[in-house]
């Protein structure tokens, strides 16, 4: 068996020990005589798996007790609608920060439900920076402020948390959740599709302060009502049981790595190694992103000579470094180095990049 270092932006790598445990438990989970996939979500075995996963997530993120943790389907993209449907609470405007492709999608969807005020945008600069907070035109009567702490496509990450006072802060953390410690109490709502830094695709996690839910926009489907899911412990209907289980194994793995503080040390080191390789290449490789907001998770870079893109990808593939092609809207390369990317994977990429530059420079 040969496993590659897979730099995919999502679905992405999972820790090998997690996959091995899932494999060992595949046919018979804990003496139950069945696979987790075959269990009733209301049976005692599955209920214990679900509860343990939530408890572990609460522990590693330090989620206060007045927050609900929801295990949903529909991807982060469904949240673009569910957020205004649930959080407008009689208000008619919401603030959005536009720092990239995912922000823009969230804005487009929210416009179906309310008047969106874009309080800051970096679109003119091609989404390569984070707008300074003192330039934001926030509205005191906004229902909430939405931002994207890590823009997965262009690799732009906030190194700070906006202070929005009484206006609830809403964050699309799809590609940065669990990468470093955070103070959940600063947020009204955090959401993330699982397939980047949590577990398999099919699960979406929403962490929401409980006083913000229970009042939806007229016509909101039952399945889009956070309160329904909260009151039913995410079992109003059949949840994505296997993805929830596997995510639970990832939470235990994170605990064993020293929790989010441990992940942060590793993630920062991995990112620094890769950015250093780009910076020290004498212009052979370049980062399009401002130095103060380069993502720890998604590292886009270009080759000065784009004719070398194809050979770069082909030769990287031959040595087991895969899915390095940049997003179709950006071009160049992108290395996604989420929690489960081992440091050895980054080391292998760095040494490949140095060799390639030497041969082709
Ligand atoms: C991947 C991603 C999404 C979309 O997630 P889906 O689960 O595919 O809907 C949204 N926002 C961010 C920041 C992402 O990285």
Overview of this protein structure:
The protein has helices spanning 16-24, 44-61, 75-87, 101-110, 226-231, 241-256, 259-279, 309-318, 343-360; strands spanning 5-6, 67-72, 93-98, 115-121, 145-147, 150-151, 156-157, 169-172, 189-193, 204-209, 285-286, 298-303, 321-322, 333-336. The chain is of the alpha/beta class. The protein has two domains: 16-256, 3-Layer(aba) Sandwich (Aspartate Aminotransferase, domain 2); 259-360, Aspartate Aminotransferase, domain 1. The protein has a seven-stranded mixed β-sheet. Strands 11-12-14 form a three-stranded antiparallel β-sheet, covered by helices on one side. Strands 1-13 form a two-stranded parallel ribbon. Strand 6 (150-151) and strand 7 form a beta hairpin. Helix 1 packs across helix 6 (241-256) and helix 2 crosses helix 6 (241-256). The protein is globular and about 60 Å long. The structure holds pyridoxal-5'-phosphate (PLP).
Features of this protein?
361 residues; alpha/beta; Aspartate Aminotransferase, domain 2; Aspartate Aminotransferase, domain 1; 9 helices; 14 strands; binds pyridoxal-5'-phosphate
């Amino acid at each position: 068996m040969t496993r590659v270092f897979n730099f995919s932006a999502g679905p992405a790598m999972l820790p090998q020990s997690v996959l091995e445990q899932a494999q060992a438990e595949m046919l018979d989970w804990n003496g139950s005589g069945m696979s987790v996939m075959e269990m009733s979500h209301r049976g005692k075995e599955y209920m214990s798996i679900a509860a343990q996963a939530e408890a572990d997530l609460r522990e590693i993120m330090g989620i206060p007790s007045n927050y609900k943790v929801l295990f949903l389907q529909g991807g982060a993209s469904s949240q673009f609608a569910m957020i205004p449907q649930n959080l407008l609470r009689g208000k008619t405007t919401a603030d959005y920060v536009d720092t990239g492709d995912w922000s823009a999608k969230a804005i487009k969807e929210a416009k179906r439900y309310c008047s969106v005020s874009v309080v800051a945008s970096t679109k003119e600069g091609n989404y390569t920076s984070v707008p300074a907070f003192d330039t934001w035109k926030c509205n005191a009567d906004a229902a909430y402020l939405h931002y994207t702490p890590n823009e997965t496509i262009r690799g732009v990450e906030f190194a700070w948390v906006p202070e929005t006072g009484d206006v609830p802060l809403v964050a699309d953390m799809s590609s940065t959740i669990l990468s470093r410690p955070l103070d959940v109490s600063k947020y009204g709502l955090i959401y993330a599709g699982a397939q980047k830094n949590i577990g398999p695709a099919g699960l979406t996690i929403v962490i929401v302060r409980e006083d913000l839910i229970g009042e939806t926009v007229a016509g909101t489907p039952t399945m889009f009502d956070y309160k329904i899911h909260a009151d039913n412990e995410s079992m109003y209907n059949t949840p994505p049981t296997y993805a929830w289980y596997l995510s639970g194994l990832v939470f235990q793995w994170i605990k064993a790595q020293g929790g989010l503080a441990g992940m942060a040390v590793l993630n920062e080191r991995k990112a620094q190694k890769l950015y250093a390789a780009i910076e020290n290449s004498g212009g052979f490789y370049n980062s399009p992103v401002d130095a103060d907001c380069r993502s720890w998770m998604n590292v886009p870079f270009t080759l000065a000579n784009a004719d070398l893109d194809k050979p770069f990808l082909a030769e990287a593939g031959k040595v087991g470094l895969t899915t390095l092609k940049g997003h179709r809207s950006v071009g160049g390369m992108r290395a996604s180095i989420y929690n489960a990317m081992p440091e050895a994977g980054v080391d292998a990429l760095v040494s490949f990049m140095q060799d390639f530059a030497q041969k082709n420079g």
